[in-house]
Amino acid sequence: WYQRRVRGSKIVNTHAMTSYHINPLNLMIKNKRNELLSHPLVASLVFCKWTAYGRHFYYGNLFLYALYLVFLTIYTLTQIPPYDSVNNSTDPEQPKYVARNNCIAKTGQTSNANCSVKVKTTWVYVSGLITIAASVIRILIEMLQLWFQKHKYISLQNLIELALFALSIFFTVNVFKAEEIISPTEWQIGVFCLLVAWMNFMMFLRKFPGVGIYIVMFVEVLQTFLKIMLVLVLFIVAFGLTFNMVMAQYPAFSNPGYSILRTFVMMTGEMEYDSYFIPENLEEGTNLYYPESTIIMFIVFVIVVPIVFMNLLVGLAVDDIKEVYNQAELQRAIMKIQLIFQVETLLPAYYLEKKNQSKMTFYPNKKART
Question: How far is 365 from 66, CA to CA, in rounded Å?
């Protein structure tokens, strides 16, 4: 019934039951009917549609994003950082490097004979141009999705992707300036672009067979951690400020910001007890102002944060790992269904009728490749 076109229906006049609001699968997702989504009949229907056209769209989209990511990474690795190419020091004894005729040269140098470092190498040009082209294509795809999905397009991941591709163009547009070294602003934008691009690639792999389930499990555990992050922040701020009050003679605790950051690092177990509390290891002028109070606060910190809190976090993450696994499988199925809906809104009705199958034979002992 779901697979075939409803002829003469006043409700559906294009695709058979592909309206997002009245689709049975969407109603199951909306009402959180997990037992129905995991039913063999529903799983078989999703499998049919996924193998017919859903996975082709997914793998094509994944390939295009991987192409963008590879050349963005190459551009980052082959581009000369601003701190390596230009010395902004006002000291006249320090040489200042400038770009001249696509070459790095010292100030006052009139010839490029001794210049061996290019501002823009061939890899910079190739990777930069491909990154820009891939980013433009990705933006057009996002605009196409926005056109068809309207307000349903608005989600955190889609907005992050749109901003990522726009900033990637800003980062790589320097490729058209042959004699200009990349600016510090462009370089710092590139740092965040590369980080977000790789993290977003991990999100793309959630539907990938094999490794996808573990990425979804990681996201589930991360969400659990974020729920108790407020409690952790309170502890870190409390101990960070108190350590700043009694250990300000150490650079790591010299101001509240550094002290809070150092306390956060100490949470992972990097205490450096010998560097702060053993008199023989202390440098001159770094003795503790109030040894008794400092040691008491340090002991309380070790008990509360690294021991109690970290064990609580581990317990929440692995207490019911089987349930996390089952929920991750369900989330992957939901993501596949949502992708299938998106593909069906883009494909013409005759193509869907051609690809939809009225029946399919399953072999229980044969592992399916999806």
Answer: 33
Instruction: Give the integer Cα–Cα distance in Å for 331 and 340.
Output: 14
Task: Decide if pLDDT at 131 tops 90.
Answer: yes
How many DSSP H helices and E strands does the chain contain? 16, 2
Residue 19: CB atoms within 10 A of its CB come to 16
3-state secondary structure 162-183: HHHHHHHHHHHHHHHCCCCCCC
Q: At what angle do helices 212-227 and 310-318 cross, to 10 degrees?
A: 140
Q: Name the DSSP letter for residue 103.
A: B
Burial class (CB in 10 A: 0-12, 13-18, 19+), 227: exposed
8: alpha, beta or left, given left = phi > 0 and alpha = psi -120 to 50?
left
Residues in Cβ contact with 33 at an 8 Å cutoff, skipping those fewer than 6 apart: 27
Q: Can you tell me the distance from the alpha carbon of 18 to that of 189, in angstroms, rounded to the nearest whole number?
A: 41
Instruction: Give buried/exposed letters for 83-116 (b at 16+ CB in 10 A, else e).
Output: eebbeeeeeeeeeebbbbeebbbeeebeeeeebe
Alpha helices for 150-228 (secondary structure H): 156-172, 184-204, 212-227
The pLDDT tens digits for 83-98 are 765 544 444 444 444 5
Q: pTM for this structure?
A: 0.72
Distance CA 258, CA 262 (A): 6
Q: Which of 39, 40, 142, 56 is nearest to 340 (CA)?
A: 56
Residue 105 sits at φ, ψ, to 5 deg, of -140, 155
Q: How do residues 307-363 score in pLDDT, each as one tens digit?
A: 888 888 777 766 667 777 777 777 887 788 878 777 777 766 666 666 666 666 766
Structure tokens at 278: 């053993």
Closest by CA to 370, choosing from 341, 329, 342, 315, is 329
What tokens does 42 get? 């529903």
Cα 29 to Cα 223, 334, 359: the distances in Å are 20, 7, 24
